Amino acid sequence: MLREAAGPDAVRRLLTFLARRLAAEVALVAPPEEHVTAVPADAERLLAAVVDDIARVGGGELDTVAVHVMGRHLAVLPVGPAPNRPVLVVARREPLTAEGRDLLADAAGPLSLCWRAASAERRAECFRATDGRTREAVLHLLMVGHLSGARRIAAVLRPELPDLARVYIVEGDWKSREEVTQRCRDAFAGAAWVVPCPVYSRHVIVIAPADDPDAVPPPPNDVARELTETFPDNRVGVGLPIALRDIPIGYSQAFHALAVARHRPERYARFSARGHLDELLGDGGRVWAARTLAPLLAYRPARAQDPDAYELMATLMSWLDFGNQSAGQLKIHRNTLSSRLRRIGTELGCDLTRLPVQAELHLALRMLSERPGQEPGETLGLDALLAVPEVRRWADIQLSPLLADERRTLLTTVATWLEHDTQTVPVANALGISAHGLRKRLARAEELLGRALLAGPSARYDLQLAFRIRAAHGTV
Predict the structure, then answer these.
(1) Domains and CATH numbers, the chain
(2) 8, 68, 244: which is closest to 143 by C-alpha?
(3) Which end of the chain is less enclosed by CB atoms within 10 A, N or C?
(4) Closest CA to 461 of 350, 363, 322
(5) Against a cut of 0.70, is the pTM above it?
(6) C-beta of residue 181 within 8 angstroms of C-beta of residue 204
């Protein structure tokens, strides 16, 4: 009996042992918030005949009950101290013998301990699941710019969110993600906010303090090296220090760095900045963004249960970053996502399937989030905003890793990929290569650019705009 009690699934193993020794059907009926364990499984059918007796024994009104129903001798016995204790129900064709009663008396102690251990584990698992969902909710609030709500929740769960942060993305085997998550917490001595990614099952997201950009304890490279050495399948992307309100930017940085880390023998990389287009467009860009998104900002749902303007904006941003996988981040059904996207396309009067449209909307959303409530003024078109020399230099910098003569094939590949809205088959046909060959070229371009292309958040929007800017100046 002790061997059964020491093994996994100890309650069921003990019940199986008793059923075999007593030639009986047995069931353990736990308090109302728990569940029934029966051996064999259909033994649960016998419980209906003794429901009241089970309640009275479990509550401590009676010590034991013996009845004869359905051609069976049923014994209802307590397991552990009252009240709200589990109850053991034993059904046999013959009454229990003295030896059988002794066996049940001996089993009551181990069975009670095993049930308590299993019950505690279930409650702990429920707590872990609730804690995980709440931490994921904090990440979502940060990604959509709700800092005050995120801070309030984080202050309760701990650790508090830092004013200046650095985002890490750890990629590994999904089977070991729970272990990797705990190792990330340990690596930062509990000071970092660590969340399994709700979109990518192989990713763990870390938001760590970065109070001193030049000397963060522990140094980013040391942490990345430790995580890759501890888990040989891990790769780590590290972002730059950013304000907490810019967590979406930090996440994109770490995601791009991760794309580079996949091609490095050390399996970790830090993001290399090349400037941000939205920073160059200034107030004129913010006015353009507000005007571009005005129909969506002014949207009012016809029914109270329909998504409002804020929800549609969050949906659009998530979809632009993660595609159809955004349903997982937003916790909505794929059909709901499709319905929202149709509504967004209708309100904005645009075709969301076209990459140039996506690139403009992505830029507008980034510009709008920088200074909400910007007063409208004279609106320049995007082409006029992109015509200034600083923006031209930005475009050259984005594409500079592909501009060398020996890399023209990769430049042409990326340009063709963008021209065909990143659709694999048309691009491969246009280039005269296989889909596999196209993916290999794009992976090589990722490595050179230091940016993710094949998964979102992708650099495809910045690259599309960079090609557009260069084309406007007659440069391929």
Answers:
(1) 2-123 (3.30.450.30), 144-270 (3.30.70.270), 386-476 (1.10.10.2840)
(2) 244
(3) C
(4) 363
(5) yes
(6) yes
CA angle 98, 103, 109 (to 5 degrees): 135
Tell me how far CA of residue 184 lies from CA of 141, 147, 203, 207, 455, in angstroms. Answer: 21, 23, 12, 10, 24
What SS3 state is found at 416? helix
- Three-state DSSP state, 88: strand
Q: How far apart are CA 426 and CA 39, in angstroms?
A: 59
Measured distance CA(8)–CA(471) in Å, rounded: 66
What does the block give as tokens for 337? 């996502």
Q: Which two tokens stand for residue 420?
A: 């065909």
Cα separation of 310 and 298, whole Å? 10
Report whether 146 contacts 232 (CB < 8 A). no
Task: Give CA–CA dist 356/455, Å, rounded.
Answer: 18
Closest listed residue to residue 241, CA positions, set 191, 167, 190:
167
Q: With cut-offs at 50, 70 and 90, classify the pLDDT of residue 371.
A: very low
Interval 177-197 mean pLDDT: 90
Of 181, 195, 172, 170, the C-alpha closest to 255 is 170
For residue range 208-265, list pLDDT tens digits in order. 998 655 444 467 778 888 888 888 889 999 999 999 999 999 999 999 999 989 888 8
What is the distance between the alpha carbons of residues 390 and 335, in angstroms, rounded to a whole number? Answer: 42
Cα(313)–Cα(347) distance, integer angstroms: 12
